[in-house]
Amino acid sequence: MVQHLLLTQVKYTQLNSMTWYATAEVEESLCLSFQPLLYDALRLPFYHLSHVTIPQFDSHNWQSYLSKDNFSSHQPSRNIAHNQRQIQRAGVRLLLQQLLNKLEISDTLDESDFPYRLVNHKHYVCFSHTGMSGKNSNQVNQNMNNKIAVVISLDRPAGIDIEHNNVVWKVAKRFYSDNEINRLLALPIVERDTVVKLLWQLKECFIKINHYTLAQGMGMDYSHLIADILDGTRQESPMHIIADEITNYHIAMSTTQHTVVVF
To answer: What is the reported pTM?
Structure first.
């Protein structure tokens, strides 16, 4: 089986003279040789055989394309989850190449150590992609949400996180600091849920920058940023940037792209 990836809804954003990022959705089309496809068709239950037409041809190079929905419907959930991770892993690297082309940079990625850097230019690179869309690990949504993102920073490590789904409040309470929880409890539920998600994404970015463990990174206290995050959610602008004097980083929040970048 040969996997072909397609990037759609690609968007490029320049945050400053040193930092660019890109977001996209990645899809796959599966190219199967006719022989295995025919073999699988003949293994279908008898009542399906009336719908199978076997054309006459001799070429061994004939290929048939099967949609990802039809292919996925016959796979176990574990296989689908593994396949999605592989698609996203390849997709972010394809998106990086497109961003490099956009910036007219000819280079390759050094993945031997964190943070990732370009081999020749030494620019810093960070990836992100969405997880499984299904809430239950035993149930996989066939309409998989493969959103991916990549950031390039010339001068220092940057972090990026893309996430479409909200963070469950009881999960956030397990990790967030007491100061954060107290401030979040004072918000209306709708605003609280929005800030909880953005705060989680911000923490994910700092985890990638500082190589924290999940528990360590999620437990860091960023309560001083909650008012600025909330102010950003109330603005009509699709992009809101916060200058954080404590961490000496900027935080860019894009509600339309479901992305947070720390740079």
So the answer is: 0.80
